Automatic annotation (TrEMBL):
This is Aspartate/glutamate racemase family protein. The keyword Isomerase applies. The keyword Isomerase applies. It comes from Actinomycetospora straminea. Keywords: Isomerase. It comes from the Bacteria. Residues 268-291 are annotated as: Disordered.
Length: 291
């Protein structure tokens, strides 16, 4: 009917926990008039310890439910879910609803020509998926893989002491020659200050959360507009609407999302990739593009 306000476009973000916060924060900063649905899975987390078939069922089922609840696009800000379930998720929802996956920022780190490390969970560090990314986008001997046992769990529970311990463990195993670190888990950007404090001065960080948010906007055909009027943010916990978990509120992004207004740049983590801005190929590298 003429004169009725147009419904805001809605983006659903799927993750087991707090790993979706950085990408959600960037979406909120770049296009506050996008309605956001944050799907967390407190009963099923962590997804990284589950069988692949379980992850596929969980992610595809949640994606279908998000579409039923009005989602115009699906974003998967989780490396494990992206590599495990994005193909069947796209088969289920595209082309009617775009699906945007997450890939660690190995390509831009490799493009620097300098040695770098990839910090990730133990499962991702030993995966063929990460090995393929390094083989594609890094020169021989340029990249070092560093497992970070316990770091994602510590971030998820906002356990400051455990975060410091896990970061110190990973930093001690990062070769001194590495000039930057790729954050290969979507939880890690939430603790960039702790990571930088443990690394040699001048070490850069690469994170793909801004690039993933930018890719979602491109798939929706939307330009960036940080001044737009904010739309709603809904939180879904195991299928039921509710508040963000207390641990999520320990982080500036979590508190900003719970507040419901615009998100200032200062409330988002700063890494090399966020300073450089987003490039069309950063979020969708060939390992996951076009499938």
């Amino acid at each position: 009917m003429a004169g009725q306000p147009q419904r805001p476009q809605r983006v659903a973000l799927l993750d087991s926990g707090c790993g979706l916060l950085p990408t959600a924060g960037w979406l909120r900063h770049l296009r506050p008039d996008l309605a956001l649905d944050l799907y967390l899975d407190p009963e099923g987390m962590p997804w990284g310890s589950k069988a692949s078939s379980w992850i596929v069922d969980r992610v595809v089922g949640t994606g279908r439910r998000a579409v039923e609840r009005g989602a115009d696009a699906i974003v998967v800000p989780c490396n494990t879910a992206s590599v495990t379930a994005v193909v069947p998720l796209r088969e289920a929802l595209e082309p009617d609803r775009p699906v945007v996956a997450t890939v660690p920022a190995v390509k831009p780190a490799g493009a620097t020509g300098l040695p770098f490390a990839v910090w990730a969970t133990e499962r991702t560090t030993g995966s063929a998926y990460q090995a393929d990314l390094v083989a594609r986008f890094a020169a021989p001997g340029q990249a070092e893989s560093v497992a970070c046992p316990g770091l994602a769990t510590a971030v998820e529970h906002a356990d400051a002491a455990a975060v410091r311990e896990a970061v110190a463990y990973a930093a001690a195993r990062t070769p001194a020659r590495c000039r930057s670190v790729v954050l290969g888990c979507t939880h890690y950007p939430l603790v960039v200050e702790e990571i930088l404090a443990a690394l040699p001065p001048g070490t850069g960080l690469h994170d793909s959360s801004r690039a993933v948010a930018g890719q979602a906007l491109r798939r929706l055909g939307l330009p960036e507009d940080p001044s737009a009027e904010p739309a709603e943010v809904r939180v879904h916990l195991g299928g039921e609407e509710g508040p963000l978990p207390p641990a999520a509120l320990a982080y500036p992004i979590g508190r900003a999302l719970a507040r419901g207004g615009r998100i200032a740049r200062a409330e988002l983590p700063t890494t090399d990739e966020t300073l450089l801005g987003t490039r069309p190929d950063t979020a969708e590298q060939p390992a996951l593009r076009g499938v």
